[in-house]
TrEMBL record:
CDD domains: WD40. The lineage of its organism: Bacteria, Pseudomonadati, Pseudomonadota, Alphaproteobacteria, Hyphomicrobiales. Residues 324-425 form the Cytochrome c domain. This is Cytochrome c-552. WD repeats lie at residues 25-66, 108-149, 149-189, 270-311. InterPro entries: Cyt_c-like_dom, Cyt_c-like_dom_sf, Cyt_c_1A/1B, WD40/YVTN_repeat-like_dom_sf, WD40_PAC1, WD40_repeat_dom_sf, WD40_rpt.
């Protein structure tokens, strides 16, 4: 909710932060939005709302390098080769990094809105980016040249390469689009719910996660073969095991569902502290699943048993909505707790605090850096204007925001949300 163009989270300098082996990885100063396993031995890379990326040693559980460049949350990370990775941010830029270097060796620019996802082609020569400017761009890594794929009518949230080199993208506009190498759209599949993530298997099957909590499977013929419900709330992340047999789907309510791809059946559910899980990645052998969440931690799970590795994760560190159990408005708001606090003593997160929001003019909260477009608006936050924000969507009601695009289509849910906010933000 109500996020500005720039995120102003601060964390201390992180160099070789000690973490016991097999424990949670602690170091980020905000939600962990992106994870990628590096081809380099024993390494995983995480990206956060705190604008940093961290290279972690899987052998020692320590942070070996902190990468700082972006002027916004890091939303996506991709491994390019044994010695290089890419990070993408809400600042609209992609940074390419070589191992051990402290600055990017190349920066790819062109997107005009936050980048939500990255994918690297099987031959390692191209990288595709999905962004909220409603485009997909396919970049040549050798020289940074790109082609732009246009057709989506809303934010593009996910992208993947198919084995034949085609690109598949998914969007808030509820379409799956498959783009051939000559930039034409070979196939468009229309669904009835916004789509948040996509992966492609080695044999060409497409798996998509939706805002309705359903996972959709498109066979190698690019036709919908099955869909299953795995959560009663939006799914925001998908990852595929290296052998292509297992899928992990995670969402805003904190659970991660392990799915057998061949049968499209749920195998088990990993239950964490109940906070949103924004990212996930399988280990190289597929035995361990790493997840990044709203609490700023990277957690490890035994895929075969569903048990956490290391510290007990069930103990909630903080759940700001625990005292509102059973409140429908609080349930609706749970998607927002990663970015916003409710009380005056909690301060700002990635987005501004909502304490005292009603009656306040947009972009006037002291101590938070809002974008120029928001500062020029005359909106005063009331129950009616907050409801309108979610009825028509932030990109339409507050152009220039980098708040994640989300609409609440149910009038009853919108009413429950604003009633809850009126009580909780006094």
């Amino acid at each position: 909710m109500l996020r500005s163009v720039r995120i102003s989270c601060a964390i201390g300098i992180l160099l070789a932060l000690p973490v016991a082996a097999h424990a949670q990885f602690r170091g980020h100063g905000g939600p962990v939005r992106a994870l990628a396993i590096s081809p380099a031995p024993n390494e995983i890379v995480s990206g956060s709302f705190d604008q940093s990326a961290i290279r972690w040693s899987l052998r020692t559980g320590t942070a070996e390098q902190v990468l700082r460049f972006h002027e916004g949350a890091i939303n996506a990370i991709a491994s390019i080769s044994r010695d290089s990775i890419a990070t993408a941010s809400e600042d609209g830029r992609i940074a390419l990094w070589r191992r051990g270097e402290t600055t990017p060796y190349r920066v790819l620019t062109g997107h005009e809105a936050p980048i939500a996802a990255l994918a690297v082609s099987a031959d390692g020569k191209q990288i595709a980016s999905a962004a909220w400017d409603r485009t997909v761009r396919v970049w040549r890594l050798a020289d940074g040249q790109h082609r732009t794929l246009e057709g989506h009518t809303q934010n593009v949230n996910g992208v993947a390469f198919l084995p034949d080199g085609a690109v598949v993208s998914v969007s808030h506009d509820a379409t799956i689009r498959i783009w051939s190498a000559d930039n034409s759209v070979a196939d468009v599949t229309q669904l009835d719910t916004p789509l948040n993530a996509v992966v492609s298997s080695p044999d060409g099957e497409i798996v998509v996660a939706s805002a309705s909590g359903r996972v959709y499977f498109l066979g190698r013929d690019r036709k919908l073969r099955r869909d299953i419900e795995v959560a009663g709330a939006p799914l925001v992340s998908l990852c595929l095991s290296p052998d292509g047999k297992t899928i992990a789907a995670s969402g805003i309510r904190g659970a991660v569902t392990i799915i057998d791809r061949a049968t499209a059946q749920t195998v088990r559910t990993l239950v964490g502290p109940g906070l949103p899980v924004w990212s996930s990645a399988f280990s190289a052998d597929g035995a361990v699943l790493y997840t990044g969440g709203a609490d700023g931690l990277v957690r490890r799970w035994n895929v075969a048993t569903g048990e956490p590795l290391g510290d007990v994760v069930m103990a909630r560190e903080t759940d700001p909505l625990a005292s509102h159990a059973g409140d429908r408005g609080a349930d609706v708001f749970r998607a927002c707790v990663a970015c916003h606090t409710l009380r005056g003593d909690e301060g700002n997160r990635a987005g501004p605090s909502l304490h005292g929001i009603f009656g306040r003019r947009i972009a006037t909260l002291p101590g938070y850096e809002f974008s120029a477009p928001l500062r020029q608006m005359d909106i005063v936050w009331t129950k009616e204007t907050v409801a309108k924000l979610f009825e028509i969507g932030p990109s339409i009601y507050t152009p220039g925001t980098k708040m994640p695009e989300q609409r609440i289509t149910s009038a009853d849910d919108r009413a429950a949300l604003v009633d809850f906010l009126e009580r909780a933000t006094r």
